[in-house]
Amino acid sequence: MEKSTDTFGLLVRTLRRFVSLSFILAGMILLVRLHEMIILSNYHNYPPGSFSSLLIGIKYDIVLYLRVSAVLMIPFLLLGLFSQKAARIFFISASVVLVLGDMLLLKYFSVAGVPLGSDLFAYSIEEINQTVQSSGEMNVWPFIFMALFLAYMVRVFIKHVYLKLKPWMLIVISAAMFASLAPLDILKPQPSDFENEFSLFAATNKLNFFSESVLEHYVFDEQFDKQTYTFKTTVATADGAFTYLDEDYPFLHNETTPDVLGKYFQPLETKPNIVFVIVESLGRAYSGEDAYLGSFTPFLDSLMDKSLYWENNLSTSGRTFGVLPSTLASVPFGNRGFTELGEDMPDHLSLMSILKTQAGYTGSFTYGGEAHFDNMDVFLKRQGVDRIIDNAGFGEGYEKMPASATSGFSWGFGDKEIFRRYIEEIKTDTANPRVDVILTLAMHSPFVVENQRYYLAKFNERLAELKLPEKTKAFNRNYEKQFSTVLYFDDALRYFFSEFRKLPSFNNTIFVITGDHRMPEIPISTQLDRFHVPLVIYSPLLKKAAKFSSLVTHFDVTPSLLAMMDADSIISRPKAAAWIGHGLDDEEDFRVANAYPLMRNKNEILDFIDGERMLANKIIYQVYENMDIETVDEPEKEKELEAELNNFLLKNNHACKNNKLIPDSLKVYMYQGQ
Questions:
Q1: How far apart are CA 126 and CA 132, in angstroms?
Q2: What membrane topology does the UniProt entry give (predicted)?
């Protein structure tokens, strides 16, 4: 009995020490928030109004403190029964690691504009190193500050005085710690409480966000993989229905994509060239008529007036990794993005491979950076690309973008040089019809381009021309470096077309221009805004121009191009396909006629659109004509969309892991190698 009493007394004393230490941890977490409020938010030009969001974020820092304490309490008490010193060392070590993680994640957010989640683990060490170097934030001072802060933290822990808390206080505090683990909405920031997505993320504790994302991906996904998908024979689309053919090939359906493009084009009497200009970070927020930040692409805007232009087009991913598979092949995502499957990509059809096998097309890819980043080269070689020109193969006479002043790193060649290199390449190769892909680079951190002073001045001129509210102008001035690269790209595009017009092939070329995703370094307004990019199809072969407000995605591009070329007997398209897209919708008024999954980052397929409802990270929104979104109270519809998204994920996993996109009978349309 006496031993039992002694053990209980030891537990109480150990718990008192634990709570005392945990209060120091809480103070350190709050100091990190204070650092963000006073220093980082000013140094990195957080948008006006961010201070109130950061202040609200203290609530979620306290939630993190309580959750961490709940996780650390049991091992601390068990160690304390044997050694108080070991328990203290354990707590101090764990606290230092956690606070360091919080600071590093905060540093990432302050530069990238979005918090880091489980997508971190989808990149190789080489890719992470390249991205960090490109940010221009690789100076030593932040790390010196972190080291000094952590050293101070350890000293406070060692020198601290234990608080003489009453037993009832220990019970209340401990209960609060374990209660914080409950999955309650009140314990995390809700989108409806914030003006925009950046404000939401500013309030969010970055370590809590990261932990939940990792837990969701690596724990809950394992349980999810044990489920099986529901196979539906028919699914309604805007122009009829997909008729699915085989339960073991969950995306395989009759290929009946309507030819919506043909009516706008002259009859294709010869095989047209197709050139994709995929623009790094080209968002609708700052490009095109009624762009809510004002349009900083005057030349592209003038081209839109002569083109088929979808103002409400969505990229399928929030990063570059998704644009090539979605636009050129309309394939699902796989687990981390289709290209991340590398040599294990399932057999699939694509625009390039079908044009190559059916009509003798050649293809190229021109990019100013490393083509192996995100396995872009691996994906394109599967399509039969004949030539890849990237950072390593530009040749002489081309100048790279200026290196970052802090890291000395340059992604590679700027947009004008990319376009100039491509023009030189095709001048000497006109024998075969072509399908070429150009990926630009300049609108990317560290946002350093040649002749930048000129473009910074041009930004101020453009801002003065635009009839924007003063509040918007003040917001834009915080991001003059980013906007200067948008203007640089637009000038480069003007140069591209002026040079291309001199080539004989110009009159028989179809240009597809789109963004890979919206730029996160200019704070994003909504969960949909990150995907909102323009889609422009321009060609001298067009009979008329048209602007469409119907919502489409990159998934829809390849099915529509192939449908038009099939209708004009350029190719004979397959009778079945596994496209995710339904084909472009040429409805001039706003509508969302189909359903689409969207992938924010590698490892994160959290968004789904069906009609005018969007599910974003388990919250349902109404999608409006101006592409704004607003939360709605529709629990039944929310469950329906969650079920649709989950079913897509199950089909996606099955098809990509088991090579079940297309059967052997369709492999004649695939490039088979030399």
A1: 10
A2: Multi-pass membrane protein
Tell me how far apart the alpha carbons of residues 552 and 588 are, in angstroms, rounded to a whole number: 12
Nearest Cα residue to 370 out of 66, 133, 545: 133
Nearest Cα neighbor of 525 from 207, 287, 283, 297 is 283
Q: Is residue 381 within 8 Å of residue 326, measured between CB atoms? A: no
> What b-and-e string marks burial along 357-375, b requiring 16 or more CB atoms within 10 Å of the CB?
bbeebbbbbbbbbbbbbbb
How high is the pLDDT of residue 213? 86
User: What are the boundaries of each domain within the chain?
Assistant: 2-223, 234-596+658-668
**Orientation angle between helical segments 50-82 and 2-35, nearest 10 degrees:** 150
Of the candidates 517, 518, 532, the one whose C-alpha atom is nearest the C-alpha of residue 592 is 532
Residue 274: strand, helix, or coil: strand
Give residue 83's identity as a one-letter amino acid code. Answer: S
Instruction: Tell me which DSSP letter residue 413 carries.
Output: B
Question: For 362-411, where are the E strands, in sequence order?
Answer: 362-367, 387-389
Looking at residue 5, its pLDDT comes to 61
Token code pair at residue 118: 């489980």
Residues 3-29, mean pLDDT to the nearest whole number: 84
Residue 279 has pLDDT above 80, yes or no: yes
Q: Minimum mean pLDDT among 181-190, 263-272, 516-525: which range? A: 181-190
Amino acid letter for position 516: D
- 289-313 pLDDT, tens digit per residue, is 999 999 999 999 999 999 999 999 9
State the pLDDT at residue 604: 85
User: 431-445 burial, b if ≥16 CB within 10 A, otherwise e?
Assistant: eebbbbbbbbbbbbb
| C-alpha to C-alpha distance for 268 and 610, rounded to whole angstroms | 34
User: Whole-angstrom Cα distance, residue 377 to residue 68?
Assistant: 42
- Angle between helical axes of 50-82 and 167-179 (0-180°, round to 10): 120
Give the span between the Cα atoms of 628 and 613, in whole angstroms: 11
At 167 the pLDDT is: 84
CATH homologous superfamily of 234-596+658-668: Alkaline Phosphatase, subunit A (3.40.720.10)
Average pLDDT over every residue of 528-547:
97
Determine if residue 624 is left, alpha or beta; phi over 0 gives left, psi from -120 to 50 gives alpha, anything else beta: beta
The answer on pLDDT for 336 being more than 60 is yes
Contact between 106 and 30 (Cβ < 8 Å): no
Which amino acid is located at 185 in the chain?
A: D
Range scoring the smallest mean pLDDT among 6-15, 222-231, 245-254, 293-302: 222-231
**Nearest Cα to Cα of residue 490 among 307, 185, 639, 279:** 279
Query: How many other β-carbons are positioned within 10 Å of the β-carbon of residue 345?
Result: 21
Q: Please, are residues 316 and 516 in contact by the beta-carbon 8 Å criterion?
A: no
Q: How far is CA 159 from CA 69, 88, 92, 308, in A?
A: 20, 12, 12, 69
**Is the full-model pTM beyond 0.70?**
yes
pLDDT at 369 over 90: yes
